[in-house]
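Is this the right way to post structure tokens for a design question? Let me know if I should format differently. Anyway, here goes:
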């Protein structure tokens, strides 16, 4: 072929030239040659055939199907091995055959580059139709913007994403949605960039509309091959961006604190769609950018991630999960070195770093500066379970624990990894719901894998009826929450609320700690119970009865974690240095002597914690604590609901109603913002016939807790009514909804309610809650008009 003849001609004449050439002068100017060659080869060289082109002396140049860019500087140094060994050159300088082979390789690869460039031009011609299609899409987008079918922010984000796209997938998805006129879907996917908040990321990983491009080679009833494309979706681009930002912050934090080791990041995931792939990408990005990644070898619970961060003394932790959200969602939660979700100042620092990342692409560090990826497995599991065993307050109760019959369902999630074996180890008598024991990202046996919902416990209750079980316990997919059904005094299975579960656990644990002498009048002031502002006030009344302080926080266990950090820092330095290695009994003694012993923590949304070795809510721990409490009731010949009525009779009847209004997508986000703003600018003067006597605005007022710490600002308002009811309003941090918490109570005038009084008061309070909600719901819709 003609180009082969040209090679022979150039090579033959080049060899003659070499015999007369001044090699010393050539060597001095070799860098100039190198730079010139780089300009020849500059640009991407696609290789559609995936040819493997090698030079058979000492060097090899590969091309691959990725169409990557050739680094000619590296190429010339590789081809001309004498460049890095100039002192060796005189022994080879006269070897014309050696030089002929080396320069021959240059010519071969120049021809390869020319051929590749020609192929690229041919591909460009073949793609001209595709380019025309993109032009047509752009015109349709402009028209939709003019017709107000697309938001300005949507159009901007579409263009920005396509400009930095690593392949044509994004363009094909946008083309398809535009061709279908799916403007609402495009707005939902692109009206904003998925916000990395204080809890990380959470969003749709499977769109409401799944395009053919996203479906890929997957069947109609299978998971799409690719996650949802969009700036406002949980996908590879946003996981990549979040990890780059977190790594940058972790490295900066190490430098500021003069820590000379590489940052360590622990990564866990649940059983959801794309969790495996997101985890793999997270570990790769972290390692490429200079962090050691510790990755669990399979699905694990969120609380075990929190434990592992502390156990391996990591800088940060990540769990890929959307907790109990619907199957189409996934998320990315971030923890810092204390094992708790990030708060200030880390939150703002990480968010700023993530926002600074505009593209998926990055340049990996040299191999010697990259981090390692290490698998975590049974060793961490065992260490975590040994700590869970210490949650049992009174081991004597377990002697009668086998009389308690338990049904457990992990709702297709990670609870089966930990709670099942720990219940066996502790000797509880339980059965697991077989249909829900297996991992299933579709959560196919439930409408929603949320243990708050009665429907999610249907199979568990059915099994309990067949086996005459006393209680049903259910954990959500990442096993950080616990829902419960109990056999009532009348023999029927009934659900108890998150507030009631927390109240029972607080009551039992405080009572037992005092009965056993672990807590007493002398050290009670060093004990603490923590709850959120939107959790039942019964959990404030109970600890106050025992002389124990109750601290209230904003919603989210990250604020509980901040309190636990504070209590740990109050310990003497010599104890702090070895705190994580001390036994639970040793840490409790230290906290009771020098700081604050954390007895229990709870939030109304079915999250509970009974120790500080995990710095987040823990469904595994809650399952153990609840089963001990239920075994205690059983040992007294009481049902769980009868034990709860004992507390109501003594402390007063407290009931709550939680409700939400959902507003999805771009339009929904605007409605939520307007509603929240309206409660601050135009607060109600009366609600359901009762005068508003107090308003707490957490965004505008400075509020301190009982320890004197300032509560962070948040868009939340609490309205106190003349009849002692109260209503809290806040936006959800994880779902497109505004949440309402309604509280009502009736305290005994005498020492206790009798059985008849309690029954009557229950009816009255329930009716009052319904009236308040009816008023609030109508008022909310009126505010949006």
């Amino acid at each position: 072929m003609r180009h082969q003849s040209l090679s022979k001609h150039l090579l033959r004449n080049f060899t003659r030239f070499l015999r007369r050439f001044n090699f010393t002068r050539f060597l001095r100017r070799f860098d100039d040659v190198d730079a010139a060659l780089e300009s020849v080869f500059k640009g991407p060289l696609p290789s559609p055939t995936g040819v493997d082109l090698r030079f058979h002396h000492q060097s090899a140049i590969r091309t691959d199907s990725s169409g990557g860019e050739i680094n000619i500087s590296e190429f010339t140094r590789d081809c001309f091995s004498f460049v890095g060994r100039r002192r060796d050159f005189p022994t080879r300088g006269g070897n014309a055959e050696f030089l002929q082979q080396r320069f021959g390789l240059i010519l071969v690869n120049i021809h390869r580059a020319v051929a590749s460039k020609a192929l690229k031009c041919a591909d460009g011609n073949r793609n001209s139709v595709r380019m025309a299609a993109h032009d047509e899409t752009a015109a349709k987008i402009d028209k939709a913007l003019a017709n107000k079918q697309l938001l300005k922010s949507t159009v901007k984000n579409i263009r920005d994403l396509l400009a930095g796209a690593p392949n044509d997938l994004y363009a094909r998805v946008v083309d398809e949605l535009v061709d279908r006129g799916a403007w609402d879907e495009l707005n939902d996917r692109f009206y904003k960039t998925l916000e990395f908040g204080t809890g990380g990321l959470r969003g749709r990983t499977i769109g409401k509309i799944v395009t053919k491009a996203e479906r890929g080679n997957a069947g109609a009833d299978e998971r799409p091959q690719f996650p949802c494309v969009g700036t406002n979706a949980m996908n590879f681009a946003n996981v990549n961006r979040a990890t780059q930002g977190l790594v940058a912050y972790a490295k900066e934090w190490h430098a500021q604190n003069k820590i000379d080791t590489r940052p360590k990041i622990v990564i866990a995931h649940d059983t959801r769609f794309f969790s495996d792939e997101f985890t793999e990408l997270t570990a790769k990005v972290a390692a490429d950018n200079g962090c050691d990644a510790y990755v669990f070898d399979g699905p694990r619970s969120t609380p075990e991630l929190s434990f592992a961060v502390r156990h391996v003394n990591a800088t940060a932790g990540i769990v890929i999960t959307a907790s109990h959200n619907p199957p189409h969602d996934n998320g990315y939660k971030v923890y810092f070195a204390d094992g708790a979700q990030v708060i200030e100042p880390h939150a703002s620092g990480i968010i700023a770093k993530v926002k600074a990342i505009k593209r998926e692409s990055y340049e990996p560090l040299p191999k010697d500066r990259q981090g390692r990826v290490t698998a975590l497995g049974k060793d961490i599991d065992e260490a975590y379970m040994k700590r869970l065993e210490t949650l049992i307050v009174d081991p004597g109760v377990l002697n009668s624990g086998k009389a308690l019959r338990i049904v457990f369902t992990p709702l297709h999630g990670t609870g089966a990894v930990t709670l099942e074996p720990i219940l066996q180890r502790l000797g509880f008598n339980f059965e697991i719901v077989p249909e829900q024991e297996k991992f299933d990202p579709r959560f196919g046996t439930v409408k929603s894998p949320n243990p708050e919902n009665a429907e999610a416990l249907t199979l568990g209750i059915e099994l309990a009826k067949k086996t005459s079980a006393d209680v049903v316990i259910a954990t959500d997919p990442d096993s950080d929450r616990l829902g419960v059904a109990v056999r009532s005094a009348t023999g029927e299975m009934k659900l108890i609320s998150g507030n009631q579960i927390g109240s029972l656990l607080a009551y039992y644990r405080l009572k037992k700690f005092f009965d056993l002498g672990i807590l007493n009048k002398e050290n009670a002031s060093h004990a603490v119970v923590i709850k959120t502002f939107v959790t039942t006030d019964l959990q404030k009344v109970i600890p106050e009865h025992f002389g124990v302080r109750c601290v209230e926080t904003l919603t989210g266990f990250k604020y509980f974690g901040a309190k636990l950090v504070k209590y740990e820092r109050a310990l003497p330095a010599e104890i702090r240095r070895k705190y994580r290695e001390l036994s639970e009994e040793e840490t409790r003694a230290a906290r009771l002597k020098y700081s604050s012993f954390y007895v229990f923590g709870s939030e109304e949304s079915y999250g509970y914690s009974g120790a500080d070795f995990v710095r987040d809510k823990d469904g595994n721990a809650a399952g153990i604590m609840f089963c001990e409490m239920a075994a205690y009731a059983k040992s007294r010949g009481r049902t769980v609901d009868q034990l709860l009525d004992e507390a109501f009779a003594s402390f007063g009847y407290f009931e709550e109603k939680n409700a939400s209004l959902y507003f999805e997508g771009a339009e929904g986000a605007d409605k939520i913002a307007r509603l929240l703003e309206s409660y601050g600018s135009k607060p109600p003067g009366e609600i359901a016939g009762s005068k508003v006597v107090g308003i707490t605005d957490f965004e505008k007022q400075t509020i301190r807790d009982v320890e004197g710490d300032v509560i962070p600002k948040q868009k939340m308002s609490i309205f106190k009514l003349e009849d002692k009811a109260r209503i809290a309003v806040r936006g959800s941090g994880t779902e497109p909804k505004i949440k309402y918490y309604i509280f009502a109570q009736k305290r005994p005038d005498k020492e206790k309610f009798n059985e008849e009084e309690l029954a009557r008061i229950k009816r009255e309070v329930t009716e009052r809650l319904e009236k308040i909600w009816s008023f609030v719901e109508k008022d909310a819709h009126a505010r949006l008009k």
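Format looks fine. Someone answered above. Worth noting: The two ends are 78 Å apart (CA to CA). Residues 219 and 563 are 49 Å apart (CA to CA).
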